[in-house]
Input
Amino acid sequence: MAKTATRSVDLEPIDRLEEKLKLLVAMVDRMKADQARAAEENQRLAREVDALRARLASTETTSAELSALREERDVIKTRVAEMLDQLEALNL
Output
């Protein structure tokens, strides 16, 4: 009976070590899953940033075109005003 008591006492540290190893493996698995989720989220955000950059570039192009059209409109307004002044001058 002394041998069985000694054997069970000797196995307790090994059983604790086994339990700690199981917990460590579970923690590593959770960390791998967290890392995979973070990588997927990072890829999604990178795609979103790329899409937003494309929209920004498009908006900047549209803004430049709008500015050019406004300048052209102002030139046309000035010319029309000058032509109207000339027409009024002819009628006198």
